[in-house]
Amino acid sequence: xxxxxxxxxxxxxxxxxxxxxxxxxxxxxxxxxxxxxxxxxxxxxxxxxxxxxxxxxxxxxxxxxxxxxxxxxxxxxxxxxxxxxxxxxxxxxxxxxxxxxxxxxxxxxxxxxxxxxxxxxxxxxxxxxxxxxxxxxxxxxxxxxxxxxxxxxxxxxxxxxxxxxxxxxxxxxxxxxxxxxxxxxxxxxxxxxxxxxxxxxxxxxxxxxxxxxxxxxxxxxxxxxxxxxxxxxxxxxxxxxxxxxxxxxxxxxxxxxxxxxxxxxxxxxxxxxxxxxxxxxxxxxxxxxxxxxxxxxxxxxxxxxxxxxxxxxxxxxxxxxxxxxxxxxxxxxxxxxxxxxxxxxxxxxxxxxxxxxxxxxxxxxxxxxxxxxxxxxxxxxxxxxxxxxxxxxxxxxxxxxxxxxxxxxxxxxxxxxxxxxxxxxxxxxxxxxxxxxxxxxxxxxxxxxxxxxxxxxxxxxxxxxxxxxxxxxxxxxxxxxxxxxxxxxxxxxxxxxxxxxxxxxxxxxxxxxxxxxxxxxxxxxxxxxxxxxxxxxxxxxxxxxxxxxxxxxxxxxxxxxxxxxxxxxxxxxxxxxxxxxxxxxxxxxxxxxxxxxxxxxxxxxxxxxxxxxxxxxxxxxxxxxxxxxxxxxxxxxxxxxxxxxxxxxxxxxxxxxxxxxxxxxxxxxxxxxxxxxxxxxxxxxxxxxxxxxxxxxxxxxxxxxxxxxxxxxxxxxxxxxxxxxxxxxxxxxxxxxxxxxxxxxxxxxxxxxxxxxxxxxxxxxxxxxxxxxxxxxxxxxxxxxxxxxxxxxxxxxxxxxxxxxxxxxxxxxxxxxxxxxxxxxxxxxxxxxxxxxxx
Amino acid sequence: xxxxxxxxxxxxxxxxxxxxxxxxxxxxxxxxxxxxxxxxxxxxxxxxxxxxxxxxxxxxxxxxxxxxxxxxxxxxxxxxxxxxxxxxxxxxxxxxxxxxxxxxxxxxxxxxxxxxxxxxxxxxxxxxxxxxxxxxxxxxxxxxxxxxxxxxxxxxxxxxxxxxxxxxxxxxxxxxxxxxxxxxxxxxxxxxxxxxxxxxxxxxxxxxxxxxxxxxxxxxxxxxxxxxxxxxxxxxxxxxxxxxxxxxxxxxxxxxxxxxxxxxxxxxxxxxxxxxxxxxxxxxxxxxxxxxxxxxxxxxxxxxxxxxxxxxxxxxxxxxxxxxxxxxxxxxxxxxxxxxxxxxxxxxxxx
Lengths: 839, 351
Description:
The complex is a heterodimer of chains A (about 850) and B (about 350). Chain A is about 65% helix and about 10% strand. By secondary structure, chain A is of the alpha+beta class. In chain A, the strands form four sheets. In chain A, strands 1, 2, 9, 10 and 11 form a five-stranded antiparallel sheet that branches. The longest helix of chain A has about 70 residues, at about 100-165. Chain B has about 350 residues and is mainly α. Chain B contains 17 helices and no strands. Chain B has helices at about 5-10, 15-25, 30-35, 40-50, 55-60, 65-90, 95-115, 120-130, 145-155, 175-200, 200-225, 235-240, 250-255, 260-270, 270-280, 285-305, 310-335. Chain B is globular. The two termini of chain B are about 30 Å apart. The interface of A and B includes residues 55 and 57 of A.
């Protein structure tokens, strides 16, 4: 289809999207896998899902997908283990050893089993190790506690004894008696338990034990300074060593149960001091023994992980490819004979040779008896849009695609965006100092392109990096416009010779242009630096830039309408040429084209005419005399004609098209009933398959309303869009919110700030002010503020806002003249894209 | 009473309401259930689930799957969502969310106590507990011998403590006692929750009173049916009914004296909302009653999402997700045990 249409124009890569075709592949089932894999390497075919009514697990290759999922799970497991062990998968180029999927599956299974077993053994050892460590801690802490208790008890005893010795009195027997009675109560056997309890649970633990035994316990706890590893969970927790004294068996069972409930590990403890030391020695010995065993195990494990790590990347990509192949195979429909698979998909026309080659190669490699059949289908479905972009054009195409993907083969505004976008940006941003800063930044990105493109960048950096070539052009254009505006960080330079004006005498220093006389030739390039800082600077530059904005705007809008003409020619749509393109051109140019003409005439002749007045009274009273506002002879006549043309073009746009469309539609239907049916069987089949909505309903009222809306939009849009282009001027010369804030901060009494204004504020109020103090410190502070303000506000924020406005001018003012943007993107099945998608 | 809740609700509740509505849109639709019901093995189910929000929770499970793993992981998702919402919530929403889990706490307490009574391992019991109803000292429930100890030892620290005031006895625990305890606790909990919602006012009170009344009535019916033929006296039975709901008070009096299922049916058919439930069952059939009640509940829960600026959506979402997990469990069990013909018996479609 594409090649039939494309006859009129020379092939332009980026201007029209690639010609696409719907192809059908009939692939023998035994070579299907290889075929799809080769097509994936090629990456030029977008498969259509022919089984969309089937759920995922009812499809042919569901089992394989499941297997891939399982392998992916194993790989994730390895990855997790490697991360834990600190082994990184090697990124060195993998040796391309051929492994088939079954072998890989087997191997992964073995490795997993080995690793799991190793982990289990290791865990067991680790657990015993941790238990021993805990035991040791309990022994130490509880021993401390017991010994301190013992010493305090003996001290008490000694005190009592000394007391007794010192004060032999009448009631000594009585006291002795008391002592005996207390002794007898001690006869009840006190049991005790020692162990460890997590610190955050220790309070609740103590409380519950207290409640459960009704207070008949004695609990001592002491915190361990360093967190220990819990043998059961394997996590580091802060723990307390506890000793509980109780009396009676019932209390013991209760306490045991509570210990269990709180996950408190109990350890035996002997009262005998000598034995304690012996146990501690024993435990320490065991600990060091276990340590060596565990280390050996870990070494073994990390060796295993290292071998896995060497091939991990390769396996991972292999599994991912396999999974995507199976997903693709699932989209193919099984032939009735179950001998072959039928695939349908979109491919660019230029790639059909490559695809066929790949098919042949696949048939050869899989030693299948029959090759795959490749045939082109005819369809009325709209093909996907595919632009072959390169590293430079991608970012610009993204700008267009963000608004909407182009309809199949319609004129692509991306081509023009490459120049107009940075240019309009620069019109707003123009300052060659800032432009150079921007240029240096983006050059850093471009020079380190190869290094940066591989790695993961931050959000904002990533965005800047992606648009590096856009920024490069933006910077270059900013330097250019900055030279025209003659601004370098808002300071004018006399780069191109001396100013054309000079003071007549010494009295003209008061920042006006009154006393100036022209002394030399006109300043050769850009704005004469003498304007800077004078009282008439603003009116002069405003007038210049406003007029320039309108000229640029009208030019760009005309380009948009002309593109709609190219589209109409390309799609053979005569109606759009005669009843849309022509009246639109007339309408826009009879009003705003005329305004542009007036502007140029005024510049050329140096006339004093008031253009506002001319334009307004052209509508209000076209018959009045122009008087002093006349720019050329016969102007009144021209204006009347133009006005008339503009008035005529509105109904011209509105009325004929819907009626003619209705007529065309009726003709088509009338004609259709008499044409013979298409003869070949194939085309019939295709009709059945793909022509389900061949002739859509024609609703006249809908079409008419649509046309009405379109007309109104254009007529109003012509005015509002032209006004909208004034943002090119406004962004430089209106009060800017950021300016206001900065204004407030710097406590300036008045400000009219936009880019150039802001930058002059920073320059004059900060840098020059600081200079004036003749103090090094103030100067340094001033320079620092100046640099930060320049980078933060002017370079970053102003870049963003100018970028946004340029974006809007393209999306709305330019593209609404011709761009449909209702296509869909071409997503080929490609392994190269696959690796980007994940992670 | 409607205040100006629409004006101020979003200050604190807007974010979470958006979150919960987002979660709700992740619930399975009839198409999902259709696909699930066609699965042949548990791996098929896993494959289908991997395309849903449960995907990340199941993707690292090795292949011989068990129903319990699926259910556990799916519950984990609910718990994660609940915890996230609880973290973000401010008063009184956080209290409301806390209330939503007390029911699970009661169930867990009963589960542990019954389990210990039958001398099961505590660790094993803990694994069976619903993670939403966990609290710190839940494991030490095993120590208690009777209700008084239960209360004094453990539950006094939990939010359930106030509900215990009615069932503190020194009798030893047995199955009957525990069941009575569960229902008494539940009664107190529902009444408290209802009071709390009424205090919140506005749409929350309106919708929650409907949902809680339904819950109370369903419990009343279940208590009645389960206590038929046991030694529970009529007065005791009546004591277990919550003091609100559509059936309160006259329905309760009638239910208290019911001796068989058909009498219950007679009582219930006087209430128009329940008439439709019972009219679908044939006489003498109680198996399908649960499902009928679940269906009715789901319908009411879905209606809660029709209004905005209220907390009932959180309650409704948690309930709906639980129902979905129940459905999933049933389907998985049917698939695992090759009983696919019975798959539709107990699945309650949500949408």
